Each structure stands twice: as C-alpha cells, then as structure tokens.
C-alpha cells in the first residue's frame, strides 16, 4: 500500500471509528509502527488529525482563525446560541467566552433581559453595546488575534476578581477521553480561569467539535455543567459523551 493510500485509509478510519491506534494499523497492514507513526505525523502537520499517545483522534475544524470560523456550521451555532441564551436568567452575572458561537449567543440575548455580561472578547462586547438593559464589563489584556480575545497576565488577574453565575465556554474539541480542548495554551489558561470563577459552566459545542480534539486541554468534562449542542450533532459522539457521564443538551 502506497503512503498516499495509507493516509486516505487512516482518515477514513478516523471518520468511521473516531480514533486510530498505530499498533493496530501496523499489524493489520503488516507494516512497522514507525511507518504508521510517520504517516500520522505527516497528517498531523497538515492539520488533518490530532496525535495522541499510541495513535490519533480527529482534528477539529474549529482551530481556524476567527474570520474563517464564521463560515463553519452556521446553522448549528445558531441553535447552540439560542439554547445557551435560554439559560441566562434576569439579574444574573454571566461570563461569555470568545468565538463565533459566543458572538451569536450575545446576539440572541432577549432585548428585555436585565443582566450583566463579563467578557474578554471585544466582538462579544461590541454585539452587546446596543443592548438596552445588559451591562457589559470588558476584561482586558494582550489581544490574541487568532480568536480576537484578551489573554495574558492582565486578563488572568481581572478574571480572578470576578465571580459569575455561569460561564459559556467555547472550545475546539469535545472528546469523551481527551476532554475539552483548544488550539492555544494561553487561551486554554484563560478559559480555565473562567471555569474556576463560575458557579456553572456550559460548553458551546456545535456538532463539528464533538469527537474532535486539539492540543491543549482546558478542563476535564467532569468540570462542566453541560455540553450544549445542535439537533444534528453526531449521534455516536453524543452517545459516547453521555456514556461518560456528560449532560448533553440539544434543542
């Protein structure tokens, strides 16, 4: 089997099974594990999978930059955002993460809602600038341009002085064993800080993120209240999360 054929087959298996194990592939194809690992490294370098110990998991399409992500799964994100908006109660103080689904959530908060939103996302803040009864508090810091959010020491210090009723968390990967992941270590740290300051944490998890993984863990699945996803999210992925004890909610 040629290298290109092996790589196509690896990607097919990832789509079908949700993971591949290098040792099993080597045995099935009568190849050395080093050959399979080289294929996995090259596919990972192209952004087509995420390597883990012993094999690989599907890579998340949500690791693209903010502008590119605006065109990914727009209907699904709208469903997730509407579900998230229904969880915000009058009088609450909530934190909203950065990202395209988070921005959609800000757009969908009811016009008569009286609440406080704290965010480290300039795009979320701008969406709420014209909301008549939502108070907006912006957390500042170094701008992480990839996701258009504040990061770094200043953001951490500010977050550490706020307590919120709920945090709406954006991630790029939601996997039953890899947990909740994202593509940047500093951004993961800011998200983790918010989880630590929230009474409840809801994951904004449109279907393309379920079963996928990225390099940096945010928190384990056990640390969040629920994963909010869309009606068309993959049944297998949803079932695996529920089997792992995760509260998965759909419209």
From TrEMBL:
Keyword list (alphabetical) reads: DNA-binding, Repressor, Transcription, Transcription regulation
- Location of the HTH deoR-type domain: 3-58
Name the InterPro entries on file: Carb_Metab_HTH_regulators, DeoR-like_C, DeoR_HTH, NagB/RpiA_transferase-like, Tscrpt_reg_HTH_DeoR_CS, WH-like_DNA-bd_sf, WH_DNA-bd_sf
Q: Which PROSITE patterns does its entry note?
A: HTH_DEOR_1, HTH_DEOR_2
- Gene3D superfamilies in UniProt: 3.40.50.1360, Winged helix-like DNA-binding domain superfamily/Winged helix DNA-binding domain
Molecular-function GO terms, alphabetical: DNA binding; DNA-binding transcription factor activity
Q: What does this protein do?
A: Repressor of the lactose catabolism operon. Galactose-6-phosphate is the inducer.
Protein name, as recorded: Lactose phosphotransferase system repressor
